[in-house]
Design brief:
single chain, Rossmann fold, 2 domains, 9-stranded mixed sheet, 6-stranded parallel sheet, 15 strands, globular, binds nicotinamide-adenine-dinucleotide
Length: 377
């Protein structure tokens, strides 16, 4: 099996954050390699960033796609690591060309764009993974598998949260690149905190339980003066089967970094998982609690997860490998179509979760604007 050849859109140049994480994550297994990129919005900067990484550079994604279509460049998939406003167009163009996509979250700027992207991916039957990195953590995957096999019984309540403190002051006014576009409606969409990290909590609640949210009552706050969009996002949701979801995200919790996690309460037990302590999953049965630790070879992992475990228990396996697992899933779905002998990819979020996330944020914004009135998702 040769290495898969990967292209990247966005993510390059000094001061950029998540492109470097993708670069390392996709290189982790020595079966994928970044070969080309349109890494910045400004053509010259894009070419310079590609030169720095030693890959074939393109001034924009259109030029990279044109070379794919003419046969000059061969790519097995692309990863889109631009700010939110620049996810939809390149993702759609590559999907339409039949090239699989691993796209950053939130999937698009609007629900309509998300639905269109989902339709394109489905019509062409082209693999698509949405980069909710935390769903790549094996212990979060184990939580999903445990709920699916009925270990917790019927789910009654879910709490999912994401607390950060980095936007507790007007960092966007100090030239911070990441704060700048996240707080700008033209580049981020109708919600800052909800779209950026509320969608991580939303996916945790719905992906782990397999339940969807039917309607929401929400309170979005903007605490920092001069900011247009929310920096605090609080939602109560009615789920399928009578379960309740409490989904909160905030960027004004001073001292909190990436305090993301989930608790699930069912009729037979409860589970909890914390992103900042990602190697263990706690399951409470009522009398004794059980702590499951990550580690290759541990017998409690089903086959669907065992293939993703790289090192024995006691070693640190965290953020880069989690994102690498999303690349791994996309790689395996591509290779399966080529009849290569690879494990089955885990069901990481895709277009459906992307559409659901966009609808959820839109309903929360609408609900908050109506004093928390119950609003259909
Ligand atoms: N999955 C996760 O856990 C996670 C974590 C962090 C960020 N993200 C997502 O990654 C994306 C990027 O976030 P970031 O924090 O790295 O932002 P960033 O500002 O650090 O990086 C954005 C990159 O995109 C480039 N860019 C901007 N517009 C472009 C365009 N039109 N064409 C090509 N390149 C363009 C910039 O030059 C920069 O290299 C966002 O969608 C964000 O939500 C996801």
């Amino acid at each position: 099996m040769g290495k898969l050849r990967v292209g990247m859109i966005g993510g390059g140049g000094p001061g950029s954050f998540f492109g470097m994480v993708h670069h390392r994550a996709l290189s982790l297994d020595a079966s994928r390699q970044l070969v080309a990129g349109a890494l910045r919005s400004e053509p010259q900067a894009a070419m310079a960033a590609a030169e720095e990484w030693g890959i074939t550079g393109y001034p924009d994604y259109e030029a990279m796609l044109a070379d794919c279509q003419s046969g000059k460049l061969q790519l097995d998939y692309v990863t889109v690591v631009t700010p939110n406003y620049a996810h939809y167009a390149p993702a759609k163009a590559f999907l339409q060309a039949g090239i699989p996509v691993l796209c950053e979250k939130p999937m698009t700027m609007t629900v309509a764009e998300a639905e269109d992207l989902a339709a394109v991916a489905k019509a062409g039957d082209v693999p698509f993974i949405l980069a909710h990195t935390y769903t790549g953590h094996p212990m979060m995957m184990l939580a999903k598998a445990m709920v699916a096999q009925g270990d917790l019984g019927q789910i009654r309540k879910v709490e999912a949260w994401y607390n950060q403190g980095w936007l507790a002051t007007a960092l966007e006014g100090e030239g911070n690149q990441q704060a700048g576009w996240r707080t700008d409606p033209a580049r981020t969409g109708i919600s800052n905190c909800g779209g950026d990290i509320g969608t991580h909590a939303f996916v945790a609640a719905t992906w782990v339980t397999g339940l969807s949210i039917r309607r929401v009552s929400a309170r979005l706050n903007t605490f920092v003066e001069g900011r247009v969009l929310d920096d605090d996002f609080n939602v109560i949701g009615e789920m399928d089967d009578g379960a309740t979801a409490i989904i909160t995200a905030t960027q004004i919790a001073i001292g909190y970094k990436n305090d993301s996690g989930i608790r699930v309460f069912g009729t037979k037990g409860s589970l909890e998982w914390y992103q900042e302590r990602a190697e263990s999953l706690l399951v409470r049965r009522g009398v004794c609690d059980e702590t499951y630790w990550i580690g290759a070879g541990a017998s409690f992992f089903p086959d669907s997860i065992a293939a993703y475990l790289r090192v024995p228990a006691g070693h640190h396996e965290d953020f880069f490998p989690a994102l690498a697992n999303l690349h791994q899933s996309l790689e395996w779905s591509i290779r399966k179509r080529r009849n290569e002998n690879v494990p089955s990819p885990f069901a990481h979020p895709g277009v459906d979760e992307g559409v659901a996330g966009m609808r959820f944020v839109a309903a929360a914004v609408e609900s908050s604007g109506k004093e928390g009135a119950w609003t259909a998702v």
